[in-house]
Amino acid sequence: MRDEFLVFGAPQIGEEEIAEVVATLRSGWIGTGPKVGLFEQAFREYVGAEFAVAVNSCTAALHLSLLVSGVGPGDEVITTPMTFCATANAIAHTGAKPVFVDIDRRTLNLDPARLEAAITPRTRAIVPVHFAGRPCDLVPIRELTQRRGLTLIEDAAHAIETRADAGKVGAVGDLTCFSFYVTKNVVTAEGGMITTNRRDWAERLKVYALHGMSHDAWKRYSDEGYKHYAVELAGFKYNMTDIQASLGIHQLKRVDANLRRREQLWARYDEAFADLPLVTPAPPAAGTLHARHLYTVLVDAETVGLTRDQFVTRLHRLKIGTGIHYVAVHLQPYYQQTWGYQRGDFPEAEFISDRTLSLPLGMKMTDQDLEDVIEAVRSLAGA
Ligand SMILES: *Cc1c(COP(=O)(O)O)cnc(C)c1O
């Protein structure tokens, strides 16, 4: 057995990031400043979008994207129950109702065939999640949102590198939201980004993210001289800092090399688990690129002899950290008590919710860590 506990999703921070953060701290400008601008530009170029607006989390990105789309009280927004609670919470923050649609059990993504039946005259937007970095079927989803006059807001928290059937994620939707949380593929400790091709939305997002103040108000103490700002709306405090951007600028440079490493880890898991009674992830559709954010396996008590929770506990005892992505959102007490959802509403998501667990796939993993995970999983799954 291992000596040290293998932390799930531990971030890899390089010397370049550390030097950049130190330089930012010494510069005297640690809030929103020029490095946020550089990170936005690099990110915009990476995904191929016209505009990128940095914020302090993906949750903030989702909230503001909904607001600029005009979503408010009395509206409905469609999303998936197989996501982190933040996706649905952001909808609730606007006063709109989160409406769930069941997933495809094989891809863990929203099933496009079920979407149209969930649209009502109150529906304003659809928020698909590219689960684990596997692209949703954006061609049919975008056809639907355009035909029905809805906004397409993608939750791309797992999907910085993802390329879908319709093109690069972030370049082809109306608004796309990314996360730089500590476990994500690009890390700024906390942070998020919104990409869009609409200038009016990009400008409004910036105003919303900084107290509702106009005219690049972050520059008001710079050498350009003091300019008065106008408060145009009751905005939020969602801006990113130059300390965070210092991390992001260098993390983004390694994003493709990191993906190649995770593709290797993934292939080794696939090979090592092929003879086990575990369901491993399906290969991505031809012509798409999977961002390999989470490697999920399904543990079925009938075939494995352990429940998922027992499996997780036993792995933990073997010093292997895991994640559960996710307990379906409609099973959480707030969503049951406030919106009336119950078990049985979304059987496909519940099937996954009861069985899924995520194995370590982080950039800090060594080859030995990988072999330790494989050995532990194989021993528990009865090999
Ligand atoms: C991490 C995550 C979020 C929230 O991101 P933050 O940056 O932590 O706010 C939203 N949706 C999904 C699917 C996530 O995994």
Short structural summary:
By secondary structure, the chain is α/β, with parallel strands linked by helices. The protein has 13 helices and eleven strands.
Tell me what you see in this structure.
The protein is an alpha/beta fold. It has two domains: 15-253, Aspartate Aminotransferase, domain 2 (3-Layer(aba) Sandwich); 255-380, Aspartate Aminotransferase, domain 1 (Alpha-Beta Complex), CATH 3.90.1150.10. Helix content is 37%, strand content 12%. The chain has helices spanning 15-27, 34-47, 58-68, 85-93, 138-147, 199-209, 242-253, 255-273, 301-304, 308-317, 333-339, 347-355, 367-380; strands spanning 51-55, 76-79, 97-100, 123-127, 151-155, 163-164, 167-168, 175-179, 192-196, 295-298, 356-359. The strands form three sheets. Strands 1-9-8-5-4-2-3 form a seven-stranded mixed sheet, sandwiched between helices. Strands 6-7 form a two-stranded antiparallel ribbon. Strands 10-11 form a two-stranded antiparallel ribbon. Helix 4 (85-93) links the parallel strand 2 and strand 3 (97-100). The longest helix has 19 residues, at 255-273. The chain is globular. The model has no long low-confidence stretch (mean pLDDT 96). Bound molecules: pyridoxal-5'-phosphate. Pyridoxal-5'-phosphate is lined by residues 57-59, 83-84, 86-87, 129, 155, 157-158, 179, 181, 192.
